[in-house]
Amino acid sequence: GSTESGIAVIAYDAAGAKQALWIFTTAPATSTRNTFVINAVPDPEPLTPPPATTPQVATGLFTGTVASGATSDGFNGVVLPDNQYFFYRSKGSSYDVLYGSLSVAPASSVFSSNNGIYYASATGTYTGGVVFTGDVRTRGALSGSFADPTAGNAVAQIATTYSTLFDARAADVATLAGKTYRQNGNFSGRSMEIAIDAAGTITGSNSDNCTVGGTIAPYTTPSTANLYTVTLIYGGATCTGVNRPREGGVAIAEANGGLRILTAGYSEANQARYTTVFISGPGTTTPVTAPVTTTP
Question: How far is CA 110 from CA 43, 103, 140, 176, in A?
Answer without folding.
Answer: 15, 8, 13, 36
